[in-house]
Amino acid sequence: MYTTELKDKNQKSAPVTTVAEDPAKLAAFEARVAADDFIEPKDWMPEAYRKTLVRQISQHAHSEVVGMLPEGNWITRAPSLRRKAVLLAKVQDEGGHGLYLYAAAETLGTSRDEMIEALHTGRAKYSTIFNYPTLTWADIGAIGWLVDGAAIMNQVPLQRTSYGPYARAMVRICKEESFHQRQGYEIMMALAGGSPEQKRMAQNALDRWWWPSLMMFGPPDENSPNTAQSVRWRIKRETNDEIRQRFVDVTVPQAEAIGLKVPDPALTWNEARGSYDFGPIDWEEFYAVVRGEGLVAKERMKARVEAWEKGAWVREAANAHAAKRAHRAAAE
Ligand SMILES: [Fe+2]
Ligand SMILES: [Fe+2]
Known about the structure:
This protein is about 65% helix and about 0% strand. By secondary structure, it is an all-alpha fold. It has a two-stranded antiparallel ribbon. The longest helix has 29 residues, at about 165-190. Bound molecules: fe (ii) ion (FE2) (2 copies).
């Protein structure tokens, strides 16, 4: 799964240069970034760069693990053994994505515990898409196709993001996301080609997930105050609107290919631009979900906190095992 940097509309955007940086160091850093060099954990970096990355990578990590919940709900109800095995593998991948990303964020001087704390107390954001419920099996298809599809659009450019550990995590994640996208599309293809009732189910899932998927790319560029700085520092390689447009252009023909209709009466092919024009996005809904008013926001956090608490014994056992091994190694 994925995230773009999220903020409540009323939340002031964090000032990007609060610390007066050494101008010579800053100039050297900016020259390296402009030359497409990767910045590594031990390199000097401006404080605002570090902070932006910690926020973006940890939000991304949170989105991966919260993203396990809506699909996890369907593992026991998958319609066949094959679907169950595939979905199980996919949900496990998302857990792995969370792990790589938490580890990447830790290289910037934050700790796993701090990040988890921020998530569980509601201080940290995660992608709004996971606060929508999964009502039918077709939603699992729609999530793989659209949500993981949107994730790929966002994450492919991040393989060249300027921070080395984040970029490298993205390479592996992108490979897995493309499997996720295909498994989702294959579910949709099967339903859309099935009985009239199955086709209706697929259409209904597309109707509910289309607009929230477009919101996943984050607010329009004119309301995304940190975008310019993030593009300059190559934390982001493209703007929200650019990636959103590419997603629409790729996804509309996929819907048509399986006989489904994108729920947007304003959708038209613009010959001059070589792109689709599409209708206005309901940003009020987006900001409401960012504020925590999503249909299942409370349920998601409750499930996360419970999983964390129930997993305490695993963490304790792993620590005891590590201490025992270290002790034994020292004795030898
Ligand atoms: Fe995924
Ligand atoms: Fe993922």
